Amino acid sequence: MKSLKLLFIFIISISVSFSSTLNLSMSSSPSRLNPILANDSASGDIAKWLFNGLFKYDKDGNPTPDLASSYKFENSTKLIIKLKRNVLWHDKKKFTAQDVIFTYNTIINPKVFTSILSNYKEVKSVKALDDYTIEVIYKKAYFKALEIWMVGILPKHILENEKDIMSSSFNKNPIGTGSYKLESFKNSSDIKLIANDDYFDGRPKIDFINYKFLPDTTTSFLMLKQKQLDVGALSPLQIDRQIDDKFKEDYKIIEKPSFGYAYLGFNLKNKKFQDIRVRQALSLAINRQEMVDILYFGHGEVCNGPFLPGSFAYNKEVKQIKPDIKKAKQLLKEAGYDENNPFSFELITNTGNEIRINAALILQYQLAKIGIKVKIRVMEWQAFLNTVVHPRKFETVLLAWSLALMPDAYPLWHSDSDKLGRFNLTGYKNKEVDSLIEQGSTTVNKEELSSIYRKIFKKITDDIPYLFLYIPNSISVVNDTIKNVKPSFIGIMHNQKDWIKP
């Protein structure tokens, strides 16, 4: 009997020793692990492990079913979604259409303050036809008809009697349908997730995910070098100057363009910038590749326009702008500027971003070659937003946009967005672009939408409301012993469930 007991203990110890943990880091503590309230990056990152939407992006950035099993548009405004029948919540209760209805009603509840509410402005009604079928009626055909249902679905049986979801204990102790469950969570501390044995798409092969709370990026880099993290991000300086051959043996280095770009935005209501020859001259005077080489040690690419390379909206026919000092000087002269009447303007940007400040200095240097005088002003971020950006009190601003996989041109480029509190900061107006944006917003066919957005891309780049500058690279590293890592357009985590860590 004693020998059997020892054997049992030995078997248990072996199974424990073979459990695997994926070690990640976070620089801030999550506020709410609730997918409709997860506004900060830490909350959003962790909530993605715990919850599923009806749809998700596949490795190429296209919508594909997640909790949904299939879907069809019966017409341009009526969407029928069939749900998977084998989905369980983390507490073993069945997922049904009622959970989807509850989530939608929670999002549009005026007592719930969620940043995603505007995504549902074109939804007329949502109802359950049966326990596993949803009918969505839109007010008009809507180009984001599928994407809005990528939001994590909430459990009705847990939250339906909650008086105030904003302050609910659920936000710290969530129950989802995701591939991992929350094991432990304390503010400003590590967070541990455990694999969901009942996950509808198959149990993850890595048993635990441990998020180490590392607010200092220097510490996270040190822990990467000590192999205490399995996944991390490197800066261009770190990858070029601060890692050795051993690090390169220990980690796969995966580099791809990030989902964002830097730009110099003109105030188009200022007479200085209303002559397109001036904007053309400025664009031709800029050496964008030089900026990429200096600021990012070459780890980036030149930005050609408002939508990112690889997306359906990108127009490959728009060629990269090459510096042409002679042509730039000629255009300035045609616009009435020369050595006796030099063109000058003020460039404003924010503190706390060394690369952006250095970019301003490079622009100042490059534009001086065609006789343009640039005065640089650097401001604290909140003061910059409140006194310069939002009230549009600038000649030019140096900023950056982060973009979603589904581009929406309306907030940045439609003339109706040229209002205080909205994001058409430059005051850009083009009736043809407005019309194309409106046409695109009611186009559910992706090929047609792609054609429309490529036209928008071309027209905006022809008008030059911005100097589109550069797209930094995202540089990720993954423990080289982890198997099945498959980099893709959307990143490396899309197939994490299949990762194996010895």
What does the secondary structure layout of this molecule look like, with pairings?
Layout: H1 2-17, E1 21-26, H2 41-50, E2 55-57, E3 63-65, E4 68-75, E5 78-83, H3 97-107, E6 123-130, E7 133-138, H4 156-159, E8 180-185, E9 191-195, E10 208-213, H5 217-225, E11 231-233, H6 236-241, H7 245-250, E12 251-257, E13 260-266, H8 276-285, H9 288-296, E14 300-302, H10 325-334, E15 344-350, H11 354-368, E16 373-379, H12 381-389, E17 396-402, H13 410-413, H14 431-441, H15 446-463, E18 466-479
Parallel strand pairs: 1-10, 15-16, 15-17
Antiparallel strand pairs: 2-3, 4-5, 5-7, 6-7, 8-9, 9-10, 11-18, 12-18, 13-17, 13-18, 14-18
Helix pairs in contact: 8-10, 14-15
Report on the structure:
This protein has 502 residues and is α+β, with helices and mostly antiparallel strands. Helices cover 29% and strands 22% of the residues. It has 15 helices and 18 strands. The chain has helices spanning 2-17, 41-50, 97-107, 156-159, 217-225, 236-241, 245-250, 276-285, 288-296, 325-334, 354-368, 381-389, 410-413, 431-441, 446-463; strands at residues 21-26, 55-57, 63-65, 68-75, 78-83, 123-130, 133-138, 180-185, 191-195, 208-213, 231-233, 251-257, 260-266, 300-302, 344-350, 373-379, 396-402, 466-479. The strands form four sheets. Strands 11, 12, 13, 14, 15, 16, 17 and 18 form an eight-stranded mixed β-sheet that branches. Strands 1-10-9-8 form a four-stranded mixed β-sheet, with helices on one face. Helix 8 runs antiparallel to helix 10 (325-334). It is globular, with a radius of gyration of 26 Å. 35% of the residues are buried.
